[in-house]
Amino acid sequence: MKKNKAPSPVPKGTYLIVMSFDRGRTIPVGRLGPVHFKKGHYVYVGSAFGPGGLKARLNHHLSPKTKQHWHMDYLDLPARQIRVSDHETKLEHEWAQKLSQSAGEIVPGFGCSDCSCPSHLFYFKTLKAWKTALTRLSAEYQISCWTTR
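Given the sequence above, the corresponding C-alpha cells read:
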C-alpha cells in the first residue's frame, strides 16, 4: 500500500502590500478614528506566521470584507503590488523601521496595535520613491513578487 505524502507546508513570512490613492480621502479606521490619506502610494508591512501562512493572510486582505478585524480591512483598495519574504524569522518590525526612514510620512498607529512600532503603513508620494525604498530593502532581504490567485 502506497503511503500518501503530507502536503507541503504553507509558506509563512513577512509581506508588503502596495496600494495607491488616486485622490485624497478620509476613511474611518476602527479605533484610530478618521484617517486622512493623501493622493499617492501606501505600503503596508505585515507578517503571516499563523495557520494558512501567507496565502491565507493575503487572500484575507485582498477579499471583500463583511466585518473589519485589522486596520487594513478598512482600506478597500486594490493592491498594486504584493511583495513577500518567506524567511523563517518575523521581519515585520525590521522592515517597518527601515521603511519609516525612507517614507515621506507614516500613518501613526496603523497596523501596529500589537507592537511598539509607530506605524506599519507608510506613505510615498511617488512610485519612484517607493521603488527606491524597495531597492534598499531588497538589498538586505530576499523579497519577491507574489500573487494569491
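Confidence is low (pLDDT under 50) at residues 1-8. Try to locate this feature in the C-alpha cell string yourself.
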